[in-house]
C-alpha cells in the first residue's frame, strides 16, 4: 500500500508507524530519488514528469520485489498517471491519501529546517501538480491535520475491513 500526499502531509511518519503496527516493511519513497532530483529540489526547482519517471519505475519495482508480505510505501503519487504507473507493477495497489491544507504543509516543511532536501518554497508546486484521487478504487482519504493516533487507527481499521488492500 502507498501513503500519498503533498510534502508535509505526514506520509513518512504515518507510513512508518502504520508499517510497524501492521508488522510490514516500510519503504521511504524519497530514498529512491536520484541525486539529480534531490539537487533540483534542494535548489527549489520543481520536478517534472520526466524527472519523476525513473523514480516511479524504481518504486514500482521495489513494491513488486517486496511481494505479498505487506509493505507500506511513502510516495507523493500526486498525479493519476503516477498512481497508474505504480499499480502497473502491483495490480490492486491501495492508497491512503493524507490531505493537508496549504498552510499546515508550509508550516510542517518549514519546521524541518535543513534536515530535509525539500524546501517549503516547493509546496505550492505540489498543490498545483496534485490530482486528488477522489474517484479511485482502493483509496482511503484522511485529513492529515487530525491527531496522529486517530489517523493510524482509521488506517488500521480500513486495512482490516479491506483485506484486498494488502494482498
UniProtKB/TrEMBL annotation:
Q: Which family does it belong to?
A: Belongs to the gluconokinase GntK/GntV family.
What is a GO molecular function of this protein?
gluconokinase activity
Q: In its UniProt entry, what is this protein called? A: Gluconokinase
ATP-binding as UniProt keyword? yes
The protein's UniProt keywords, in alphabetical order, are:
ATP-binding, Gluconate utilization, Kinase, Nucleotide-binding, Transferase
Q: E.C. number, please?
A: 2.7.1.12
> Which NCBIfam families does the entry link to?
therm_gnt_kin (TIGR01313)
Pathway it belongs to? Carbohydrate acid metabolism
Top-level taxonomic group = Bacteria
Q: Which organism is it from?
A: Castellaniella defragrans (strain DSM 12143 / CCUG 39792 / 65Phen) (Alcaligenes defragrans)
Amino acid at each position: 500500500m502507498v501513503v500519498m500526499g503533498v510534502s508535509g502531509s505526514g506520509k513518512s511518519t504515518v507510513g512508518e508507524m502504520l508499517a510497524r503496527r501492521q508488522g510490514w516493511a516500510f519503504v521511504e519513497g524519497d530514498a529512491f530519488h536520484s541525486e539529480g532530483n534531490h539537487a533540483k529540489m534542494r535548489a527549489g526547482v520543481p520536478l517534472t514528469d520526466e524527472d519523476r519517471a525513473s523514480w516511479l519505475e524504481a518504486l514500482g519495482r521495489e513494491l513488486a520485489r517486496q511481494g505479498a508480505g505487506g509493505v507500506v510505501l511513502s510516495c507523493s503519487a500526486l498525479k493519476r498517471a503516477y498512481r497508474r504507473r505504480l499499480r502497473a507493477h502491483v495490480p490492486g495497489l491501495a492508497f491512503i491519501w493524507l490531505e493537508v491544507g496549504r498552510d499546515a504543509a508550509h508550516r510542517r516543511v518549514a519546521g524541518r529546517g535543513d534536515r530535509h532536501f525539500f524546501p517549503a518554497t516547493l509546496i505550492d508546486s505540489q498543490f498545483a501538480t496534485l490530482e486528488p484521487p477522489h474517484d479511485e478504487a482502493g483509496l482511503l482519504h484522511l485529513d492529515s491535520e487530525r491527531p496522529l493516533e486517530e489517523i493510524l487507527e482509521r488506517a488500521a481499521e480500513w486495512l482490516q475491513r479491506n483485506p484486498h488492500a494488502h494482498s
